[in-house]
Description:
The chain is an alpha+beta fold. It has twelve helices and 23 strands.
Amino acid sequence: xxxxxxxxxxxxxxxxxxxxxxxxxxxxxxxxxxxxxxxxxxxxxxxxxxxxxxxxxxxxxxxxxxxxxxxxxxxxxxxxxxxxxxxxxxxxxxxxxxxxxxxxxxxxxxxxxxxxxxxxxxxxxxxxxxxxxxxxxxxxxxxxxxxxxxxxxxxxxxxxxxxxxxxxxxxxxxxxxxxxxxxxxxxxxxxxxxxxxxxxxxxxxxxxxxxxxxxxxxxxxxxxxxxxxxxxxxxxxxxxxxxxxxxxxxxxxxxxxxxxxxxxxxxxxxxxxxxxxxxxxxxxxxxxxxxxxxxxxxxxxxxxxxxxxxxxxxxxxxxxxxxxxxxxxxxxxxxxxxxxxxxxxxxxxxxxxxxxxxxxxxxxxxxxxxxxxxxxxxxxxxxxxxxxxxxxxxxxxxxxxxxxxxxxxxxxxxxxxxxxxxxxxxxxxxxxxxxxxxxxxxxxxxxxxxxxxxxxxxxxxxxxxxxxxxxxxxxxxxxxxxxxxxxxxxxxxxx
Length: 495
């Protein structure tokens, strides 16, 4: 997910890859994503009534098929007022506890049912939730909000926008022991919005009208867009609220298809997702960003669909926007295999997408090279004090920032791609996305790289150099570093 403040020059906007404005920075990694396991997938059913004119939400929903979790909470957006929590069959109304977990969740409050003693929690197979909320309806041009971000439930006067993870617009089960947030659900929802022209829930086709009964039998993040928008379909992809002309949309899709094909060839598998491209506007003046909620790629901007930059006549802009688009498409491929958890998992998620995007863009454009991309990232990273990946992982999130995720860590992966082996690095990516683990943390990343290298002495040298130190950041490597790189190359040649 990427965020671009409009207050910065275009070139900086495209390389900064902020998640969103500063003090909310930790909110996204805190929504610890989970890796695919044998756990049941929660099922969301019920009714949702919305008014985009008044900014109101009324929900009467059941979350069923709940995994067996001991120490849990349910996360629900702090702007939603809970009426009650009842049993799935509505026979019982439960007492509940509520608290805030600001170190983990900024947008939501945490709910749970107390057990038979003060140290236990009760979790039935299904829970029925009734809640309402009223949010400001904001005209960003006349009376804008100070900021907007991915986790905001946003009424912009024409639509409601709510992502299906960070906003917690529906009750999301969180397993505290394994740091898993079960935000991908199957659903059966009846939605009513009398002042809407169309209704969209991620995982279903958009519907014209004020009423919709939408069902997804596949687990999906239920991103919402309701209100005044149009949609069309081209080459198996859905375009929602796109400001592009049909001809330009076709050109953009052609270029996105080329990027997607390069990504598939690089990784060795095809993405299963037919994509939805959704465009909308923020409730602030100074924010613009994109994110992926598989199978949707969302663009939030006042000026134009951010993907229109793929058509720019300016080569530098076209390359920058291609990197931008490739980063988001990489998230599609990554998200189909794994959703990362832990603070270091957030670094892995964004830096791997940026690494893969860099490989694709350098292949698509002869005018740019891997060395050029790597050096630019190292230079940007060096503008801030550098810490080793090990130090960052042990900082409790304090040192985990945009520079680490989008500059420093991707630069390390690119250096390893050059100095170690692309085959080893792509094997490492595959292992990161497929090996079973409780936490996708620093230890997991190190162990998988060690396994991909396959030589203990070489792995020790590589981890010491790139994970536990920062000497790689200099443009003039030390004698020891040159010798380590030479040793690496010889060892790989002999394997």
